[in-house]
Amino acid sequence: EVFPVPSESNDKDSQTKKPIKKFYKFKKRLKNKKKHLTMRQANSVTREDVNQKAISYLVNWEEDRPSWKFNKVLQAWIMRNLFDKSLIPKAVFKILLNYLEDLKGS
After folding, report:
1. Angle between helices 47-63 and 90-102 (to 10 degrees)
2. How many CA atoms lie within 13 A of 77 on its CB side?
3. Nearest to residue 73, comparing CAs of 106, 56, 50?
4. pLDDT value of residue 98
5. pTM
6. Residues 71-102: pLDDT tens digits?
7. Which helix (H) or strand (E) holds 36?
8. What is the DSSP letter of 86?
C-alpha cells in the first residue's frame, strides 16, 4: 500500500498556522477571564451590606408586616449570625427574638 506523503509546502503552512491559532485561543480565553472577573467584582456584596439588609429586613418585619416579604437568604444569614454581638445590635436583637417566635419549620 502506498500512503500519501504530504508535500513540504502544505506541511509548513500547517505548522505556521498552529501557533497563530493557539495565540488567538489564548487571547480569547484571557479576555473571557478578565470579563468574568470584572462581572464577579461588580456583583460582590460586602459583609456590611448583608448586615444592613438583615437589620432592615427585621425592622421592616416588626414595623410594616403587610409590605414585608420573606427572604430565605437573609433569614439564613440571620440564623447563622444570631449571637454575634458585632453584627446584630441590642435593639434589633429584641426584634429578632420576636421574629424567631413566629418562625415555622417544615
Report:
1. 60
2. 18
3. 50
4. 93
5. 0.57
6. 999 999 999 999 998 999 999 999 999 999 98
7. helix 8-43
8. T
Write out pLDDT tens, residues 42-61: 566 677 888 999 999 999 99
Grid cell digits, residue 22? 493557539
Nearest to 70 by CA among 80, 83, 60: 60
Grid cell for residue 93 = 436583637
Please report where in the chains the cell 418562625 appears, as a residue: 103
Query: Which cell is 65 given?
Result: 408586616
Q: Which residues fall within 8 angstroms of residue 6, CB to CB, at 6 or more apart?
A: none
- In this structure, the chain runs to a length of 106
Grid coordinates representing 69? 416579604
What grid cell was written down for 73? 437568604
**At CA 44, angle to CA 77 and CA 83, rounded to 5?**
20
